[in-house]
Amino acid sequence: MKCPNDNTEMYQVKIEGHYGQPILLEQCKECGGIWFDKMELFSARHGEAEKIEVFDSKSLWTPTNIEKRILRCPLDQSELFRFKDRYFLKGIILERCPSCNGIWLNRGDFTKFQQARQELKRPKERGSEDKKLEGDIERILSVHHAEAASNTLEKLGGFLSMPIDRATLLPLEQSEKQLEQGKTGSLILDVLMLVLMALIRGR
Q1: What pLDDT shows up at residue 194?
Q2: Where are the domains positioned within the chain?
């Protein structure tokens, strides 16, 4: 297989993928570029890049001289297109084949790619604004819970102070409309009412 950059014969290098699966890549001895078949780049285990790019450590972070303006896929000779996306990792040149979806990376870009992906996985430290927002939310929730508890106790106190008709076990002078509204009350009040009714019946 010929290198898309300088037409040099590439050689196979073996790396490890996820779950220990072996992956065979093609690498150019001259320019250091690496060819990945479809999905091989994303299947490589973290840290594998340093194993195959260490031989060129002195020039690892220097730009590669691209001898050709048009790069061709080493598999089907389709023209490679540079992947451009504003969300893609910065400073990494990725050439993709539109036919087989293979990927060409220049020297050092495989290492940069893996390191950048690892950085994205690390949890970001919360800033002062995030901490302030979290504190505000906690205060709002605590006030809400306090108000809800106060309203519940107020309703419960009102219910307990009502005179009860022992024949029907309902508050006196209660209209049908009020009864219907009472059915939509909170679950806590309904449970407490049932408990109180059971106590009264037991007398």
Answers
A1: 60
A2: 11-121, 162-203
